[in-house]
């Protein structure tokens, strides 16, 4: 087997920047785990629960301060979104959206459609489903809480893997995104920091966030994404630098072609981001960690490994600025959970083993041989359409655009714009002494009983499958011997 991104494009396991521990806070809302976009839809919010359980299995929850679960309010969403759109989201049900009445027409005008028939979710980006409004409040509340933790100065890194919905616009849904929690979080950060940098490593262009701040010189958006061939959302060319005015050149786009691997990606990412930091001088950073840029994704066509993806997090972390980590895309859910668990470890500054611990969702990782850093055979990778010349050309074009963003322009912020919102830190975090134990999900409970709790002399099927593997021998190979 060749590592994803083969041909020598695999990076070593990322260090944790300067190896300094950070004060990390973490948001997880179990109410998101049962959200269902519909049969056949590639967006599966349950991936966040898988990531959370993997983080717990590695023993990392004790390394972070837990943010209190607090869904956003309609008023908080209205800080960016159109009130008419929010009213529609709040009242919309699957029964409303299917007909030719006024509500269905309004929903379709806002990018939301009914799912018709079994498996109908495959053809609809933004379906209406049960608990849609509740879902939007929950993931947005997590990003706002994380931003407030950074603004209060009580955390260095804040994590919400359920957030990162970068396509939603002010008045409508797009690209599986309904409410743009990233914009809401950045607006919250602007109440406490003069300049905020947004970095997007999702496979898709971060168009919704870029559009929201195109007139501002207090926010810079930098997006690394697959581009060309009609790939959604068909925006984010290197020449796209924003509209003329104070915010021009505060949008930086780094488009890449199909099949880029770790080494080439970081020939772009690290020098460009180092120069962005030097020129824009942000006071806080938001990093959207969409995992659909990983090799083997069901939608993305890049060849990044989990190590290469995490290297982006490690590099940004090394600048020692308040850092908000958000989720985003990612449609091969075991790969997504592996990615975000590993990046939680990077945020903490903790090395974790490659062997996935036994836990309630262990079976989901069978096809990656129970390894955090999965491997793909070369035949399953996308052919690399990037060349040394194309990579150099993109980097030079990005640097040229950065040269037009003068520090004086970025620094000409009217500081009186800062709103200095007060933050009640006592409401942000759980008190470890009062925090209730999370209720185990039915799926995790079933797996635990099947694999971890044999009765009497009965041998656990989990033990039979996983134990007694000789050094250097995979569990899948051992299983073949047992047959």
Automatic annotation (TrEMBL):
Reactions that this protein is recorded to catalyse = N(6)-acetyl-L-lysyl-[histone] + H2O = L-lysyl-[histone] + acetate
Q: What EC designation does it have? A: 3.5.1.98
**Histone deacetylase domain residues:** 41-345
| GO terms for MF | histone deacetylase activity, hydrolytic mechanism; metal ion binding
Q: Which InterPro entries match?
A: HDAC_I/II, HDACs, His_deacetylse_dom, His_deacetylse_dom_sf, Ureohydrolase_dom_sf
In this chain, a divalent metal cation is annotated as bound at: 202, 204, 292
Instruction: Indicate which residues the UniProt annotation says bind substrate.
Output: 125, 175, 331
Which segments carry the region annotation Disordered? Answer: 429-483
Q: Where found in the cell?
A: Nucleus
The record's annotation in Pfam families points to:
Hist_deacetyl
**UniProt family annotation:** Belongs to the histone deacetylase family. HD Type 1 subfamily.
Q: What is this protein called?
A: Histone deacetylase
> From what organism does this protein derive?
Oryza glumipatula
